[in-house]
Q: What sequence folds into this?
């Protein structure tokens, strides 16, 4: 499996695991959150538009993300595989991705859902110290996750792509399980 979506709440550990697995598999780790944070740091037009949403823990409007993903997945290094981390984040984004992959003649091999209870997410986010990891923003991000992103669990279950992973374990245990899954 080389075309994977990592799904999970903020703090579920998907970024860390995506980083490790993408290095092992030699495929790009595509994190929309990271792309946005970089754009904000260097104040590109995208960054300027996205800043207030990211600071508040809201999703940025789909139109800011969809072109960006289309361009990124069309790049040479993404032809052989990718790990999408933080995209899709709602049903319209998932529908867009499914059409885009058809256009590109690609298929997603699996959607890894990192399952972590809310109280563990809270603890992790509070200790992480990223700019959007303050208490008010965190509670909004968890709410946004439950309202807009969690429906994708059913969505991908119906598409028979969902693979649930218990994300409330040691980092190395999770990476080992992911290695086994991608080799299967
Ligand atoms: P992340 O690093 O994935 O937690 O994303 C950080 C922030 O970037 C989120 O709280 C959103 O404001 C924004 N963001 C990242 N990915 C998306 C996306 N696919 N759609 C909308 N907003 C996003």
A:
């Amino acid at each position: 499996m080389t075309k994977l979506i990592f799904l999970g709440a903020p703090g579920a550990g998907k970024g860390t695991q995506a980083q490790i697995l993408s290095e092992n598999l030699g495929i790009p780790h595509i994190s929309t959150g990271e792309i946005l944070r970089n754009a904000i740091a260097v104040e590109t037009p995208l960054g300027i538009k996205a800043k207030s949403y990211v600071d508040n823990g809201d999703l940025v409007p789909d139109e800011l993300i969809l072109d960006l993903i289309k361009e990124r997945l069309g790049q040479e290094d993404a032809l052989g595989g990718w790990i999408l981390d933080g995209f899709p984040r709602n049903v319209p984004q998932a529908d867009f991705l499914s059409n885009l992959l058809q256009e590109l003649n690609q298929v997603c091999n699996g959607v890894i859902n990192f399952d972590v209870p809310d109280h563990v997410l809270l603890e992790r986010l509070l200790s992480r110290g990223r700019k959007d990891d303050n208490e008010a923003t965190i509670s909004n991000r968890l709410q946004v996750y439950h309202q807009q992103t969690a429906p994708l669990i059913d969505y991908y279950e119906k598409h028979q792509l969902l693979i649930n992973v218990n994300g409330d374990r040691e980092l190395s245990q999770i990476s080992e399980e992911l290695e086994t899954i991608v080799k299967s």
